[in-house]
């Protein structure tokens, strides 16, 4: 499948309808994804990025049928991660002379992954590649958005920003353009992508967005490397990124728990009802982490002002699903969020304290002493949990 993007620029990537997890099992992709590669056919024929390794033959054969590989003049590798560089080895086996334009860090990454010394041409911010007919590709380093090697490329006259991972979504959609996608799905997938992948880099992103906006480039199209191509009001996603990168919060609280024999679940419900009774307009989400998709829960946490975590104590610690969840929460380096903890226990009851300590290490401000319930909560303790929820709502 080949789709025209604008004038002599085509999408030549791969829609992956069957992908259900990404980055190993660290990111759920309920709606698949796409690996967006682009072909510029001016006086020079330039390929921007490739596709994930399993689709390498399909990709290279399609390119060969479309233009003939001999007509390719260069490849721009905006980012070396395998979902975009996976077809390079197959392509370079057939065109070993082809110049590759990429950052110095991408050379390191590509050599490390593919063990080949290809015709690398290192570029940095402001460098240009003339593609003919008066058009140029201008390169902009996007260091740590989200890898050290990341960069974007801007095609003059057509005003297309090839942004690579930035502004993307793991979202398979046959229409390919943002105006043809189901808006609710697109909005959610863009947010989930930011929350789960880009949150730790928000400070870098703020700086980079200012830098790019200061260049005063006319951007008519943002051609990402995953999901839709933004052609209808493309700056809407830039505005969203500006908001998300500034310690984004909605009026929301998320209660995340795991439970062995329902005691901690009863506490979670009581805490949620306490919060809702004091702050009725606050969205309160309650998730059993062992029965929920972790990346969807993280998306709820991203929207929240307060995260309340609960686990019974087992082996002097929290349950393992909660431990994995908190590990991921810490990795994302959220800022300006509040935290609290709770849980049932029979003997020692360390879990709530440990969870609060871990959240604190992850940058959360702990707003209450952990709520601990010996054995199962009776009616009086359920009321205590409701009051705990009320006190948390007052801290919002
Ligand atoms: Fe889509 Fe960082 O690769």
Descriptors:
elongated, 7-stranded mixed beta sheet, binds MU-OXO-diiron, 2 domains, 396 residues, 12 helices, Rossmann fold, 6-stranded mixed beta sheet, Metallo-beta-lactamase, Chain A
Describe this structure in words.
By secondary structure, the chain is of the alpha/beta class. The protein has twelve helices and 23 strands. Helix 11 links the parallel strand 21 and strand 22. Helix 6 packs antiparallel against helix 7. The protein is elongated and about 80 Å long. The termini are far apart. The mean pLDDT is 97. The structure holds MU-OXO-diiron (FEO).
List the helices and strands and how they pair.
Blueprint: E1 3-6, E2 9-11, E3 14-16, E4 21-22, E5 27-28, E6 33-35, E7 38-41, E8 45-48, H1 56-67, E9 74-76, H2 82-85, H3 88-94, E10 99-102, H4 104-114, E11 119-122, E12 128-132, E13 135-141, E14 151-155, E15 160-164, H5 183-198, H6 202-214, E16 221-224, E17 229-230, H7 235-244, E18 252-257, H8 263-278, E19 283-288, H9 294-303, E20 306-310, H10 320-331, E21 338-345, H11 351-361, E22 365-366, E23 371-374, H12 379-394
Parallel strand pairs: 8-9, 9-10, 10-11, 15-16, 18-19, 18-20, 20-21, 21-22, 21-23
Antiparallel strand pairs: 1-2, 2-7, 3-6, 4-5, 7-8, 12-13, 13-14, 14-15, 16-17
Helix pairs in contact: 5-9, 6-7, 8-12, 10-11
Bound molecules: MU-OXO-diiron.
Residues 79, 81, 83-84, 146-147, 165, 225-226 line the site of MU-OXO-diiron (FEO).
């Amino acid at each position: 499948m080949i789709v025209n993007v604008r004038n002599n620029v085509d999408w030549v990537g791969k829609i992956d309808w069957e992908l259900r997890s990404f980055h190993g099992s660290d990111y759920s992709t309920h709606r698949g994804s796409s690996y967006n590669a682009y072909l510029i056919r001016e006086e020079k024929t330039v390929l921007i990025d490739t596709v994930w390794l399993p689709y390498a033959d399909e990709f290279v054969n399609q390119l060969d049928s479309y233009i003939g590989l001999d007509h390719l003049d260069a490849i721009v590798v905006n980012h070396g991660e395998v979902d975009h560089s996976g077809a390079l080895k197959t392509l370079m086996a057939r065109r070993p002379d082809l110049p590759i334009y990429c950052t110095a860090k991408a050379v390191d990454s590509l050599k490390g992954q593919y063990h080949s010394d290809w015709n690398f041409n290192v570029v940095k911010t402001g460098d240009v590649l003339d593609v003919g007919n008066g058009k140029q590709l201008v390169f902009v380093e996007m260091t740590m958005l989200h890898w050290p090697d990341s960069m974007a490329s801007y095609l003059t006259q057509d005003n297309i920003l090839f942004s690579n991972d930035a502004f993307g979504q793991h979202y398979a959609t046959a229409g390919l353009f943002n105006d043809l996608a189901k808006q609710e799905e697109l909005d959610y997938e863009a947010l989930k992508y930011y929350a789960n992948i880009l949150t730790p880099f928000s400070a870098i992103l703020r700086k980079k967005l200012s830098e790019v906006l200061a260049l005063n480039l006319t951007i008519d199209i943002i051609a990402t490397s995953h999901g839709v191509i933004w052609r209808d009001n493309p700056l809407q996603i830039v505005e969203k990124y500006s908001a998300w990168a500034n310690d984004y919060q909605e009026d929301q609280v998320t209660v995340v728990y795991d439970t062995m024999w329902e005691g901690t679940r009863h506490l979670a419900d009581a805490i949620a009802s306490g919060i809702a009774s004091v702050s009725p307009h606050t969205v309160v989400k309650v998730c059993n982490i062992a029965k929920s998709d972790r990346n969807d829960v993280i998306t709820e946490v991203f929207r929240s002002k307060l995260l309340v975590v609960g686990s019974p104590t087992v082996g002097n610690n929290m349950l393992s699903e909660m431990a994995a969840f908190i590990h991921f929460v810490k990795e994302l380096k959220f800022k300006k969020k509040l935290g609290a903890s709770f849980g049932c226990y029979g003997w020692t009851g360390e879990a709530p304290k440990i969870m609060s300590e871990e959240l604190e290490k992850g940058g959360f401000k702990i707003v209450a002493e952990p709520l601990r319930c010996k054995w199962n909560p009776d009616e009086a303790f359920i009321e205590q949990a409701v009051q705990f929820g009320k006190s948390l709502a007052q801290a919002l």
